[in-house]
């Protein structure tokens, strides 16, 4: 919002005073699939999100407030981001829109999100690419709202730093919200929609140099040029900027307000419009499968899950070898049968996807996969998106595809003690971590069970469904023996 006098502000809100709150700088880093694309020669636009001193990239454009917090040692560890801020201009304070929420970290708000299902919030990928927010704010400001816990995050598998085309992320809540979700737009945007009215809502501020704390505002804009995956948001008179990233662009369809797009990027001066990611363009390939994954219930042992209520057993496990690919399990003893392709094993470093809670696990044992967990190094795969580190490859021309991780022969620790850095058969000059066989031989271990969605009970059809889902967690590219840095975290 452009600045108005205090009297004008109070008049427009029935005398209500401004709400308190502050903004969150959220760190960011390369996800494995993006890194794989960079090193394997696939086009990868670093864009404005990378530190300009490391990648030569512009530092303006993405609208989520970001912060340079991590050391940078080149492409593999490019975690520092230049800070960029701006806010909804020419808007008004709002105490409504309960489905529009704030992303909280370090006691501040940095991005916006929108509730699309009782336990799922949609936002911009660049707001959550490196770390799970501390909490989600339901309310209009930090001092008046409720903060709720999060379980994990998802990114669109084709997201690339600095690009708006697939800048979609999602946050899974620990418990469902008693808030009416905003429906997703189902009708394809067409040229005739250009110029139609939008309503935008977010936790940004009134101008790039405004020192006042973040609070929820709404404003009016219009639909500009429509592209295949995005559309322009033109000022009329309001427009979104940093801190409003991940917020909704809403429009009325058939008498009801629907989510048309997610705010992504714009100019640094907050004066020439911004870019939103089209919901309709990603509905079938990303949003609908994600909603199915999060909302599903009664899944069997070994099947993909996100929260405990997805599983008939009531226990969703994030395995230590592939924490992004949680699966349904149950407590067991040595004598109990866990089903085909699974065994009764120690919990180890694996954690329940929703945290330990008050579960009573006999002898600390649960049903686990007999081989590597789905998504882990050495597990069967069909695409990069089915793997924890974003790399599905073959180590022999006659061998099947398995999940791996990029590595360098001169850095033996990168693959850990259970794998070795070996050349890929399907990509010249590229090396990946190959799981050692049971005898410790320098040969790839080829897993026989599981895919990203179906686990040990999966058939080919289920695997194809999992691959279409393409929901890979954002992981910073850093693997050391016994150490990993997750971009989406499961407590």
Automatic annotation (TrEMBL):
InterPro entries named in the record: CLIP_Serine_Protease, Peptidase_S1_PA, Peptidase_S1_PA_chymotrypsin, Peptidase_S1A, Trypsin_dom, TRYPSIN_HIS
GO molecular-function terms, A-Z: serine-type endopeptidase activity
Span list, region Disordered: 1-22
A GO BP annotation: proteolysis
Domain Peptidase S1: 88-299
PROSITE patterns: TRYPSIN_DOM, TRYPSIN_HIS
PANTHER family: GH08193P-RELATED, PTHR24260
Organism of this sequence: Chondromyces crocatus
Protein name: Peptidase S1 domain-containing protein
Family matches, as SMART domains: Tryp_SPc
Lineage: superkingdom: Bacteria
Pfam hit, one: Trypsin
């Amino acid at each position: 919002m452009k600045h108005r006098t205090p009297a004008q502000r109070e008049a427009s809100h029935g005398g209500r005073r401004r709400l308190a709150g502050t903004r969150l700088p959220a760190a960011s880093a390369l996800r494995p699939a993006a890194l794989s694309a960079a090193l394997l020669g696939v086009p990868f636009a670093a864009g404005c999100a990378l530190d300009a001193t490391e990648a030569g990239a512009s530092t303006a454009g993405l609208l989520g407030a970001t912060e340079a917090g991590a050391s940078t040692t080149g492409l593999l560890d490019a975690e520092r981001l230049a800070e960029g801020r701006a806010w909804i201009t020419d808007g008004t304070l709002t105490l409504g829109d309960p489905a529009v929420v704030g992303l909280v970290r370090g006691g501040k708000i940095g991005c916006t999100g929108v509730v699309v299902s009782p336990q799922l919030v949609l936002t911009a990928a660049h707001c959550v690419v490196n770390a799970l927010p501390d909490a989600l704010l339901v309310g209009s400001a930090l001092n008046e709202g409720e903060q709720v816990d999060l379980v994990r995050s998802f990114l669109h598998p084709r997201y690339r730093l600095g690009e708006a085309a697939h800048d979609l992320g999602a946050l899974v809540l620990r418990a469902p919200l008693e808030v009416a979700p905003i429906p997703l737009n189902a009708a394809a945007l067409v040229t005739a929609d250009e110029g139609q009215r939008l309503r935008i809502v977010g936790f940004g501020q009134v101008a790039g140099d405004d020192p006042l704390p973040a609070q929820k505002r709404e404003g009016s804009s219009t639909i500009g040029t429509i592209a295949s995956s995005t559309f322009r948001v033109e000022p009329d008179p309001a427009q979104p900027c940093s801190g409003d990233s991940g917020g909704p662009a809403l429009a009325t369809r058939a008498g009801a307000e629907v989510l048309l797009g997610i705010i992504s990027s714009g100019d640094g001066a907050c004066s020439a419009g911004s870019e939103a990611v089209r919901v309709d363009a990603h509905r079938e390939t990303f949003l609908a499968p994600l909603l199915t994954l999060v909302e599903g219930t009664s899944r069997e042992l070994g099947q993909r899950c996100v929260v405990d209520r997805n599983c008939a057993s009531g226990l969703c496990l994030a395995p230590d070898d592939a924490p992004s690919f949680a699966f349904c399990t149950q407590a067991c003893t040595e004598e109990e049968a866990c089903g085909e392709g699974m065994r009764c094993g120690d919990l180890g470093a694996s954690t329940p996807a929703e945290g330990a809670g008050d579960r009573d696990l006999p002898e600390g044992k649960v049903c686990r996969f007999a081989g590597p967990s789905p998504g882990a190094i050495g597990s069967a795969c069909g695409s990069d998106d089915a793997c924890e580190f974003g790399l599905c490859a073959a180590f022999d021309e006659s061998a099947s595809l398995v999940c791996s991780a990029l590595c360098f022969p001169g850095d033996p620790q990168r693959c850990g003690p259970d794998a070795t850095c070996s050349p890929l058969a399907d990509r010249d000059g590229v090396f990946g971590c190959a799981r050692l066989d049971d005898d410790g031989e320098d040969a790839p271990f080829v897993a026989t069970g599981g895919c990203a969605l179906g686990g040990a009970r999966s058939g080919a059809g289920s695997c194809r469904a999992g691959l279409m889902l393409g929901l890979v967690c954002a992981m910073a590219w850093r693997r050391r023996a016994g150490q990993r840095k997750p971009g989406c975290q499961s407590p």
